[in-house]
Structure formats: C-alpha cells, structure tokens
C-alpha cells in the first residue's frame, strides 16, 4: 500500500459526516484510510484509483513502473511527479520504452523534474521488454489472486502484511521473467493499487463500494 515509507504516514482519519444528515457527505467529510492525507492529489488517488480492479494492460504496466520508482520514497512524491514521469517515460508505452538505451537513460538523468535514479530508469526499459515478452501479462498479474480481487476486512492499515503470499508469488513470477524492482514489498503495494487486493480499511468509505 502507499504508506511503505514513514513519509507517507497520515494524521487521524477525518470524522465522518453526522449520520442524521440527509445530504450526501462532502468529499472532505468522508472517512478514508489513515494513510491518505488531506492533500487533494492524494485524496483523488485514494477515492478514484487505489484498490479499483484494473485489467487495462497500459494501466497495469504504468503502475508497475511507478511502484518501482517509489522504492525508498513516499507515494505522494510519485503522485506529484507522475505527469513528469509520464512525459519522460514515453507515456508509459511499453513498446516505446523497450527501445530505450543507455543514451536515453543518460538524457533523463539531466532532467531535474524526474526521480533521477539510473537503476530505476534502466529498469523501466528492461521491464518494458520483459512485459512485451509475456504472452498474457494481465493474466499473469491476476493469476496470483485466482483472477478475482481478494477482499480483506482490515480495521487499520497496519493489519495488512508488508508482503503477503500473493505478493511473494508475483515477485517470484516477475523475477523469473526478467523484471527488476519487483521485490515482495513492491509487489504488495502494486497488488493493492490495482485492486487485486482490496485493502481499504473497514472504516473507509471506499471499502463498502469495492467490497460488494
């Protein structure tokens, strides 16, 4: 999940709107997972993307690349640089990224708007090539949960494992196929982000919407 780094720890959850109110609660009044801060970028990501089951290959590839870039950083850092990364990483197009070389990496290392990490930039190209070599990358990712989201009922974010059995399995699969920056902890966050693991906490307003 996003709070792999202490930098993403969030304050207490915003209180819910009074139960007696007949009007729909405003976005600011909704209870969210405790890792979600009140940063509008974070709120939009939490409410509209995190934990929503995705089988779009471009989105799944993008999230895998972004999770790799998060290693050692907070997720809000990734969100704030997501569009810069999208532009620099060729719109997360695996076919385009697969053609990149060391000169391309060196060029990106000069861009101060990016996360300038040579190993992560190289991994983007290597992982694109590995992704394209898979006959069914979407099927492989979803295979670790049997093709259906695993719905959890955690009361607090810390109840979720840092790397559960599904993440361990995906990490092994991806490494076997030549991927890098796909350790179990990264894979746990990835599976949560793309909705293979539905880990919104039970007090979060998104839990009911995604658990049904």
Portion of residues in helices?
40-55%
- End-to-end C-alpha gap: 21 Å
Q: Which spans have pLDDT < 50 for at least 5 consecutive residues?
A: 5-25
Per DSSP E runs of 2 or more residues, the count of β-strands stands at: 2
- CATH structural fold name of the domain at 57-198: Endonuclease III, domain 1
CATH C-level label of the domain at 57-198? Mainly Alpha
Order of helices and strands: HHHHHHHHEHHEH
The pLDDT mean sits at 89
Shape: globular
Strand-pairing-aware structural class? mainly alpha
**CATH homology superfamily name of the domain at 57-198:** Hypothetical protein, domain 2
Q: What is the CATH-assigned architecture of the domain at 57-198?
A: Orthogonal Bundle
Described by strand count, sense and barrel closure, the largest sheet is: 2 strands, parallel
What is the CA-atom radius of gyration, in angstroms?
18 Å
What amount of the residues lies in strands? Answer: under 5%
Give me the number of helical elements: 11
For the biggest β-sheet, the strand order reads: 1-2
